[in-house]
Specification:
260 residues, alpha+beta, Fructose-1,6-Bisphosphatase, Chain A, domain 1, D-Maltodextrin-Binding Protein, domain 2, five-stranded mixed sheet, 8 helices
């Protein structure tokens, strides 16, 4: 692991912790919910958390760009940028359920240099960088070795999110073959895959701030992260995360190509 890689992993983890702990201060406090133009909810916790992350990054990496869910993009021309989701799972957060997280990634173009996912309400932190491994609470973690779909746990954020009839049918076919299907959703599902407690997590819709931190986490844990066409990317608008043993079979069942 190079010094630069180690530094970016540490930085991503630190800013995820700081921003996530700010959001945690608002958790289960009855915050007011606003609805954004796209119909999704937002609270003062989302905004304050992202502001905290931006201030931290601006103070230490003033030349870098920042792309965040709540406040858009700054310094689009920058070679390197930070990609932020202050609360991934705002609907979960609003209902007082602890399965939400703060996501931070560092990227050059579409190449992710480091990613961190912090789950303040349950005390979990994942951090990874290509070639450096994936760490769960400072210890190396890996996906499961389950190779039979009949023994697998498959997850999605919400079956209603799979709006395409064709993809919805494909998901139901996959779920019917699995040992268990659940909607432990948003970034928490990817935590379960990366730590070997589930084998598959799918989302039909993912923004870059949803996916960028998760790609290196899944891949460095030994899994496979692609969009629904089988391309390894955080910018495909959707995502399929699996362990390696089931990667091809799952993508075939979902109608996705299996290019790596």
């Amino acid at each position: 692991m190079t010094t630069e890689t180690q530094g970016l992993m540490q930085a991503a983890a630190e800013v995820a912790r700081k921003a996530g702990d700010v959001a945690l201060d608002f958790f289960r406090k009855g915050v007011t919910v606003d609805i954004k133009g796209d119909g999704t909810p937002v609270t003062v916790a989302d905004r304050t958390s992202e502001k905290t992350a931006r201030e931290w990054i601006e103070a230490r990496f003033p030349q870098d760009g920042i792309l965040g869910e709540e406040f858009g993009e700054t310094r689009k021309e920058a070679k390197r940028r930070w990609i932020l989701d202050p609360i991934d799972g705002t609907k979960t957060f609003i209902r007082g359920v602890p399965l939400w997280g703060t996501l931070v990634a560092v990227a050059e173009g579409e190449r992710i240099l480091a990613g961190a996912a912090y789950f303040p309400a349950v005390g979990d932190l994942l951090v990874a960088s290509p070639g450096a491994g994936c760490y769960w609470n400072d210890k190396r973690t890996q996906v499961s070795s389950v190779s039979e779909l009949s023994k697998a746990v498959v997850l999605s954020t919400d079956e209603r999110f799979i709006q395409s009839p064709e993809r919805g049918q494909a998901w139901r076919a996959l779920a019917a073959k699995a040992h268990m299907d659940r909607t432990w959703g948003d970034c928490y599902g990817y935590l379960l895959v990366a730590t070997g407690r589930a084998e598959v997590m799918v989302d039909e819709f993912l923004s870059p701030w949803d996916a960028a931190a998760l790609q290196p986490i899944i891949e460095e844990a030994g899994g496979v992260f692609t969009d629904w066409t089988g391309v390894r990317t955080s910018f495909g608008g959707n995502g399929i995360a699996t362990n390696a043993a089931l990667a091809t079979q799952v993508r075939e069942l979902l109608g996705a190509n299996t290019r790596k």
